[in-house]
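Predict the 3D structure for this chain.
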Amino acid sequence: MALPFDDTNGSRDPRALAILAKTIYRELRQNGYAERDVVVLASELLGMVTNEVKDRRKTGD
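Done. Predicted structure below.
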Protein backbone atom coordinates (compact mmCIF):
# COMPACT_ATOMS: atom_id res chain seq x y z
CA MET A 1 0.00 0.00 0.00
CA ALA A 2 1.60 3.27 -1.09
CA LEU A 3 0.83 6.36 0.95
CA PRO A 4 0.93 9.80 -0.66
CA PHE A 5 2.97 12.21 1.44
CA ASP A 6 3.95 15.73 0.55
CA ASP A 7 6.12 18.34 2.22
CA THR A 8 3.37 20.72 3.32
CA ASN A 9 3.39 21.75 6.95
CA GLY A 10 -0.20 22.99 7.01
CA SER A 11 -3.05 21.24 8.72
CA ARG A 12 -4.86 18.46 6.91
CA ASP A 13 -8.52 17.70 6.50
CA PRO A 14 -9.49 15.61 9.56
CA ARG A 15 -11.79 13.52 7.35
CA ALA A 16 -8.86 12.57 5.15
CA LEU A 17 -6.87 11.46 8.19
CA ALA A 18 -9.84 9.44 9.46
CA ILE A 19 -10.12 7.73 6.08
CA LEU A 20 -6.37 7.02 6.09
CA ALA A 21 -6.59 5.53 9.58
CA LYS A 22 -9.54 3.36 8.60
CA THR A 23 -7.73 2.19 5.46
CA ILE A 24 -4.57 1.29 7.38
CA TYR A 25 -6.63 -0.54 10.00
CA ARG A 26 -8.52 -2.55 7.38
CA GLU A 27 -5.29 -3.42 5.55
CA LEU A 28 -3.65 -4.64 8.74
CA ARG A 29 -6.65 -6.72 9.79
CA GLN A 30 -7.07 -8.22 6.31
CA ASN A 31 -3.42 -9.22 6.37
CA GLY A 32 -3.75 -11.17 9.57
CA TYR A 33 -2.80 -8.66 12.24
CA ALA A 34 -4.76 -9.03 15.48
CA GLU A 35 -6.34 -6.17 17.38
CA ARG A 36 -3.46 -6.38 19.84
CA ASP A 37 -0.97 -5.91 16.99
CA VAL A 38 -2.79 -2.79 15.85
CA VAL A 39 -2.71 -1.40 19.40
CA VAL A 40 1.04 -2.07 19.63
CA LEU A 41 1.57 -0.33 16.29
CA ALA A 42 -0.51 2.67 17.41
CA SER A 43 1.49 2.83 20.64
CA GLU A 44 4.77 2.79 18.72
CA LEU A 45 3.57 5.58 16.43
CA LEU A 46 2.48 7.69 19.40
CA GLY A 47 5.86 7.11 21.02
CA MET A 48 7.64 8.31 17.90
CA VAL A 49 5.53 11.46 17.72
CA THR A 50 6.06 12.08 21.44
CA ASN A 51 9.82 11.80 21.03
CA GLU A 52 9.78 14.15 18.04
CA VAL A 53 7.78 16.75 19.98
CA LYS A 54 10.13 16.44 22.97
CA ASP A 55 13.17 16.85 20.71
CA ARG A 56 11.62 19.87 19.03
CA ARG A 57 10.94 21.49 22.41
CA LYS A 58 14.54 20.91 23.48
CA THR A 59 15.95 22.55 20.36
CA GLY A 60 13.39 25.36 20.41
CA ASP A 61 12.10 24.83 16.85
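The CA atoms of residues 7 and 56 lie 18 Å apart.
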